[in-house]
């Protein structure tokens, strides 16, 4: 009790200091606002003198001065504003843990209080340490006793004599307990027994040791995290972003960090975590969005198409080939041949007439010696073409259309054409020439622009040429394919391209070829790339991302058991990754403990896998999953309704996860008049509270209190390659899992009868 009193007193003191700091900061803010007003007033004194050179110079100088002042004020204001936010957050919850640490060589034991941000009332007197500070790492890493922790100056040894955890609400300590474990199980239990919500939560107070390793790793060029469903991969990685922004503050901005996520719904699900921790959000994208940004004119197949479109065996084998690293290398080899011959151009046209033919462009392109790279060739070709076009201006000035245009000029058009130019001409001819030149230059501007944007490259034709020749650069037989089957595949791609569409299989190679031909050096200012659900990427895509972000460190998270798009190929992914990144630069972290689901659900989900050995359930008890096999659709609906009512009574929410979108629509059609039911049709929707009906491929990464797996019948889930899908669906459930099936249960759900209840 004494301890509680002591801690409450200390807390009161800290809160008081926070309030004092808030008042000080308020003053700063209003001072900054006042200064701002003065700067604004200053603009009125900036005289725009533009008739003379010295006048212009003077104006520029005073503008520059104003800008400088503006910048300083803005900086002051921003930091004061930022500080206001930090203080507000600290006021709500100043800290969540205390560790007592005695550094080696020191005779003092120092209590360290850990919170979401650092706070000191005077220089070097830290009342709260940021959870990302080097010393805070101890809290997550070790129990009592001797410890080591990393500091910018090197490894430090110390002794931990106390670990204490707090829950603080409205300025009062509601719970306090001491522990000798890493992060006490009780605290973790409290954290994970909560209900699901439409937004992911931060795990800052209960980060586990293995997770902490992921969060604080700064060495690896490739950090590969293999973790079971619900093992906190995504949670840990969001903390990692926050950590990196802190660790490299001043040198790293949120705009230099990109997170590739599986779908938009997931983006929406995680986008509160960083702002709630007081950090800016990183750039979040799906690979789909990335490609559409790069190639807006080509439409990539949607997730639904990728998941549901039936494919023949031959198509599947082609897909395998196109996802391989060997195919990536094939693009590179093909591109090399373009140094000698074979580049495809489009002629440069003006008003429908061909000004420079393809052959002419090719002649220029290949007129440079073999030491030129593709990008240098393109660069000098572009320059030559621009010069050539400039040369056309004088011949074009004599064209009939120009004469006609001049004759038809109205007074206004005449004025705006000449703009600021002096209007005194020697004679009529000089006037005519001046006008003609301006008219032709105007008309040609778009052509010049196209040339400078290298539109004369015919990338579509180039890509088709590559597809046709690819068998020269890759061994088809390795993929059980022959020339004829390959060429049939090429025809299918061609058909798609006619309607400006591409599959993901083709889209990435297309972008890569485009980049290589243009000599792109990638997006070099991006420093960290995070890829969630890595198992759904192909080695080709990963090699491409590495090429695109050459300066970035990669963190890849995945669960090979949830490979619902790439299926069995995902198994070799890690090996292939090690070919992209050298072994010394890569680190693999495995997370085996799952936190999302109750022990009963985890055990059941694990049994669905053939080799689910490396999954440890967290000890949290709940009801066993139920399996109910019924005769018809109506009874399935009935059972679902009963389950939803039960979950609702406990203030929890249910998701019905169907295999396909069509099924989701079908279920929605009969349930739409029930209370609070929403169907998720596309990834661009938002998650809302209430009952959700979601197709499986959109449920990736999400979690729900209760999950109803819809129609797990033999008819619906047949092949062994759907095992991972079944596992992914089952592992979305936190407290309750209900499997419904119509007719006969899928053999994929044949697990030990002790693991579930049959209804
Ligand atoms: N250290 C932790 N403390 C508290 N809760 C945690 C911790 N780690 C994970 N969780 C909780 O476990 C659940 C699953 O975490 P998360 O979604 O990050 O897992 P995941 O590995 O990305 O899962 P999946 O692969 O299935 O998408 C979340 O509710 C998360 O809050």
Brief summary:
This is UvrD-like helicase ATP-binding domain-containing protein. Keywords: ATP-binding, Helicase, Hydrolase, Nucleotide-binding. With 759 residues, the protein is α/β, with parallel strands linked by helices.
Describe this structure in words.
Helix content is 46%, strand content 18%. It has 759 residues and is α/β, with parallel strands linked by helices. The chain has four domains: 1-181, no CATH class; 214-306 and 526-594, P-loop containing nucleotide triphosphate hydrolases (Rossmann fold), CATH 3.40.50.300; 348-453, no CATH class; 618-758, P-loop containing nucleotide triphosphate hydrolases (Rossmann fold, 3-Layer(aba) Sandwich), CATH 3.40.50.300. Strands 1, 2, 3, 4, 5, 6 and 7 form a seven-stranded mixed beta sheet that branches. The longest helix is centred in the first third of the chain and has 44 residues, at 2-45. The protein is globular. The mean pLDDT is 86. Bound molecules: adenosine-5'-triphosphate. Adenosine-5'-triphosphate binds at residues 188, 191-192, 201, 203, 206-208, 211, 227, 229-235, 559, 595-596, 701, 703, 731. ATP binds at residues 227-234. One of its GO terms (biological process) is recombinational repair. One of its GO terms (molecular function) is DNA binding. One of its GO terms (cellular component) is cytosol.
Look at the structure and give the mean pLDDT: 86
Biggest sheet layout: 7 strands, mixed
Radius of gyration: 32 Å
Gap from first CA to last CA: 50 Å
Q: Outline, from the CA principal axes?
A: globular
* Low-pLDDT stretches: none
Structural class comes to alpha/beta
Bound molecules: adenosine-5'-triphosphate
The overall number of domains is 4
Q: How many distinct beta strands?
A: 26
| Number of H/I helices | 26
Task: Tell me roughly what share of residues is in helical segments.
Answer: 40-55%
Beta-strand portion reads 15-25%
Pfam families: UvrD-helicase (PF00580), UvrD_C_2 (PF13538)
Keywords: ATP-binding, Helicase, Hydrolase, Nucleotide-binding
GO cellular component, one term: cytosol
Organism: Weissella kandleri
């Amino acid at each position: 009790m004494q301890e509680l009193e002591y801690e409450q007193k200390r807390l009161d003191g800290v809160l008081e200091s926070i309030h004092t700091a808030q008042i000080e900061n308020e003053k700063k803010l209003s001072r900054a606002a006042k200064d701002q007003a003065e700067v604004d007033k200053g603009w009125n004194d900036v005289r725009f003198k533009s008739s003379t050179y010295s006048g212009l110079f003077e104006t520029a100088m005073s503008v520059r001065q104003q800008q400088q002042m503006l910048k300083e004020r803005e900086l002051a204001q921003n930091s004061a504003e930022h500080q206001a936010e930090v203080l507000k957050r600290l006021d709500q919850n100043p800290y969540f843990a205390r560790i007592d640490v005695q550094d080696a060589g020191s005779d003092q034991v120092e209590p360290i209080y850990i919170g979401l941000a650092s706070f000191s009332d005077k220089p070097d007197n830290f009342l709260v340490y940021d959870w990302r500070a080097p010393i805070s790492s101890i809290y997550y890493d070790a129990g009592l006793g001797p410890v080591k922790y990393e500091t910018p100056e090197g490894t430090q040894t110390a002794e931990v004599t106390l670990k204490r955890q707090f829950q603080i609400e409205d300025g009062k300590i509601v719970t306090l307990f001491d522990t000798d474990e890493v992060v006490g199980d009780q605290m973790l239990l409290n954290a994970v027994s909560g209900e699901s919500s439409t937004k992911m939560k931060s795990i800052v107070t209960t980060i586990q040791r293995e997770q902490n390793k992921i969060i604080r790793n700064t060495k690896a060029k490739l950090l590969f995290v293999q973790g079971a469903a619900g093992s906190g991969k995504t949670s840990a990685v969001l903390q990692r972003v926050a950590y990196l922004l802190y660790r490299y503050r001043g040198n790293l901005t949120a705009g230099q960090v990109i997170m590739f996520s599986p779908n938009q719904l997931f983006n929406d699900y995680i986008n509160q975590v960083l702002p709630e921790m007081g950090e800016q959000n990183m750039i979040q994208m799906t690979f789909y969005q990335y490609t559409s940004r790069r190639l807006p004119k080509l439409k990539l197949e949607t997730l639904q198409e990728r998941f549901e479109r039936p494919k023949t065996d031959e198509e599947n084998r082609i897909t395998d080939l196109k996802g391989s690293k060997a195919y990536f290398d094939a693009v590179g080899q093909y591109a090399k041949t373009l140094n000698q011959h074979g580049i495809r151009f489009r002629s440069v046209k003006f008003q429908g007439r061909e000004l420079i033919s393809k052959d002419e462009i090719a002649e220029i392109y290949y007129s440079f010696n073999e030491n030129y790279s593709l990008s240098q060739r393109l660069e000098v070709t572009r320059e030559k073409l621009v010069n050539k076009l400039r040369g056309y201006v004088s011949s074009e000035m004599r064209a009939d259309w120009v004469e006609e245009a001049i004759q038809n000029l109205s007074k206004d058009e005449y004025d705006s054409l000449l703009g600021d130019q002096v209007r005194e001409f020697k004679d009529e001819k000089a006037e005519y020439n001046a006008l003609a030149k301006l008219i032709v230059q105007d008309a040609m501007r778009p052509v010049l622009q196209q040339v400078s944007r290298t539109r004369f490259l015919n990338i579509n034709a180039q890509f088709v040429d590559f597809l046709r020749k690819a068998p020269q650069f890759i061994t088809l037989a390795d993929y059980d394919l022959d020339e004829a089957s390959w060429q049939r595949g090429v025809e299918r791609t061609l058909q798609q391209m006619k309607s400006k569409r591409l599959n993901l299989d083709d889209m990435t190679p297309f972008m890569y070829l485009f980049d290589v031909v243009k000599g792109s050096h990638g997006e070099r200012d991006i420093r960290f790339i995070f890829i969630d659900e890595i198992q759904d990427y192909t080695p080709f895509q990963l090699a491409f991302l590495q090429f695109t972000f050459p300066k970035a460190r990669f963190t890849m998270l995945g669960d090979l058991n949830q490979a619902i798009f790439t299926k069995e190929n995902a198994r070799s992914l890690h090996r292939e990754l090690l070919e992209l990144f050298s072994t010394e630069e890569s680190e693999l972290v495995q997370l085996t403990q799952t936190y999302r689901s109750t022990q009963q659900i985890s055990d059941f989900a694990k049994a669905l896998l053939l080799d689910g050995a490396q999954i440890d359930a967290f000890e949290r008890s709940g009801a066993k999953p139920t399996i109910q096999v019924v005769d018809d659709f109506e009874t399935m609906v009935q059972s679902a309704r009963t389950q939803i009512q039960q979950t609702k009574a406990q203030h929890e929410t249910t998701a019905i996860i169907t295999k396909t979108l069509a099924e989701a629509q079908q279920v929605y059609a009969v349930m739409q008049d029930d209370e609070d039911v929403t169907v998720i049709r596309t990834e661009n929707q938002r998650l809302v509270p209430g009952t959700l009906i979601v197709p499986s491929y959109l449920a990736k990464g999400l979690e729900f209190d209760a999950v109803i797996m819809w129609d797990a019948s033999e008819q619906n889930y047949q092949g062994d390659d759907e095992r991972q899908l079944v596992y992914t669906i089952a592992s979305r459930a936190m407290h309750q899992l209900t499997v419904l099936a119509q007719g006969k249960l899928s053999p994929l759900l044949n697990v030990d009868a002790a693991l579930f209840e049959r209804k």
